[in-house]
Amino acid sequence: xxxxxxxxxDRAGLDQLxxxxxxxxxxxxxxxxxxxxxxxDELDSGAGLPAGWxxxxxxxxxxxxxxxxxxxxxxxxxxxxxxxxxxxPRRRVAEFDADLNARAAQEIPVPTAFLGVRGCDMAAIAVxxxxxxxxxxxDSAFAxxxxxxxxxxxxxTEPGGVCFCSSMGTGPGVGAGYDIALTERLGAxxxxxxxxxGSDAGARILAELVTEPASDAEMSxxxxxxxAAAGRMGRSMPDVDVREVIRRSRESPQWExxxxxxxxxxxxxxxxxxxxxxxxxxVTDLTGEHAERWERWASCFELDFSYLHGGxxxxxxxxxxxxxxxxxxxxxxxxxxxxxxxxxxxxxxxCPAGIDLTVEVARLAELDEGAADDHR
Length: 376
Description:
Number of helices: 13
Shape: globular
Strand order of the largest sheet: 3-2-8-9-10-11-1-12
Largest sheet: 8 strands, mixed
């Protein structure tokens, strides 16, 4: 096998891929059905994959449904993202004894393979890499986990009702960074997976499977299916300069309108694959002999998130929603050189109020255009 060569294997080959990865010492994380959703967790074998399951998504709604076929990856993003394994929701960072002598928590990263990473989530991992793994003050724990990561991407052929990755330039095909890219196909030739190694490590893993060279017709058909998926997105970001619209919309009445619906629950930030904010908290035992410092995910929707001496800077729901959207789609460019949104649609599906950021941006753009017309 060489990088860029495309081969095919059947459903048994996908199961064998997991066996081979585990034999190489990887902990394999992939999709599986649990608690009414498709979640990401460790796989012991291919039997745990969500064969024959799909999802219906719309603002504020996510429902599993049985498919008429045995497709494994024909479902859109669930509530969890790969971020939870690279940037854990809660982790111990230090311990202290009674004399306040500190000892950093030791963590030995486990080689981990992510199986089934969509284009949007591949882009999200790259975004987190820029945010947490680069710049002047990289997160050493994140960087260590990322170095031990083996990525198996999946080109999407069936986007969901809240997906808009195509308009964000992050899908439906997987971008750079994968070790292996898969395209699942069901048709006259049966249940097959096209596989392309993107790294030498990926080529070595594929070389241990029973594969066949992919024909030109198979590769062409697979590309066509992925391309067609771009036209079946359930949502799209408005075709405007979103960054500039948000910059000019600081005083827009739309912020008050969305605040009247927003519960400031923080669900959108918790399911987002790129939100990275954290807080720290110290805990101690009853004797006072031992204390620990923990890092946990935080949200800009929390009232205390902007707390300074004397009170919180952003007390209203309006200001907190504006902060989140303005940073995600606007000032993220200033900090990290790209948008913080990858178009996965999780924040739309898992918002209990059904708030759709693509609709809110479209409304901001409409009001911005109206204001510009008034000044002409």
